Amino acid sequence: MKVTEHISNAKETLFSFEILPPLKGQTIQTIFENIDPLMEFKPPFIDVTYHREEVVYKRMPNGYLEEKTIRKRPGTVGICAAIMNRYKIDAVPHLLCGGFTKEDTENVLIDLDFLGIDNILALRGDSMKNETYFVPEVNGNNYALDLVEQIVNLNQGKYLDEELQNQTATNFCIGVAGYPEKHFEAPSLNTDIQQLKAKVDAGADYIVTQLFFDNNKYFEFVEKCKQSGINVPIIPGLKPLAGKKQLSLLPHRFHVDIPDDLVAAVIHCKDNEAVKQVGIEWCVQQSKELIASGVPCLHYYSMGKSENIRAIAAQVF
């Protein structure tokens, strides 16, 4: 079932979360161990992230450096299939521009369609660590907008090979990312929202936001989106703080502000266990306020750990 169908059929705010594929060499059991404790809250769908390749340099005996491309977290498509088979709920794979040619993308979409996967979160993806700015693959999609357009084309039966006959149209529900505090590469929030509207106008069906700690940022973002003519569901994404280091890591990694009250509470914690409790309590209050405002779904970034997400959901759902 499509994410938008889950939302339209729901009588109350839905619960969903995102998981990371395990590191290469680990088993899928680590995924199940993190999903199992959250199933009592009846998530209608689970997102599975995709991590693009990384480039590492290995020094050779002759002193030269050898460039090697690796994937630390493969398996997104397989994990989605396993989740649907084990839990009988929908899985939402993330699909990136980075690391894919358009043909690669088409082949992945065909595989997903064969598996009966109805939903995709279309993202540009981050630049590689050795790149200052995002560099697309040769013959790849430059932006999430381009990726949305390719998925929409396939939904209309338009494949890259125009000579194909009797093409079967896919029927994917397309999600895209939104940034309540703007994407760090955007010159302003308003221009960022215009880019988001372009994705919606191209065929995106719903929006999931980047994490935020101040609900007012989300409410203002939603209002600006409505004023710009964006009328698709906007799902808020939440992540509880879990350690003192995140006070600097999260603003650096995700380009978000942390409210002064939350910063002060974390600073006064004696250890990370106390920080985790502060993070849970803050996220519970965020969640309750967002539900009271009528959001369609609360989406939690678990980062591969379910303990604090379960503690939050137990007080909210």
**Which structural class do you get from the secondary structure elements?**
alpha/beta
Number of domains: 1
Taken from the alpha-carbon principal axes, the silhouette is globular
Widest sheet, order of strands: 1-2-5-6-7-8-9-10
Report the total helices: 11
Uncertain stretches: none
* Portion in beta strands: 15-25%
What Rg is obtained from the alpha carbons, in whole angstroms? 20 Å
What is the CATH topology assignment?
TIM Barrel
Describe the largest sheet: 8 strands, parallel, barrel
Helix content: 25-40%
Alpha-carbon distance between the two ends: 22 Å
Report on the structure:
With 317 residues, the chain is of the alpha/beta class. It has a single domain, classed as Alpha-Beta Barrel (TIM Barrel). 40% of the residues lie in helices and 18% in strands. It is built from eleven helices and ten strands. An eight-stranded parallel β-barrel has the order 1-2-5-6-7-8-9-10, surrounded by six helices. Strand 8, helix 7 and strand 9 form a beta-alpha-beta unit. Helix 9 runs antiparallel to helix 10 and helix 10 packs parallel to helix 11. The mean pLDDT is 92.
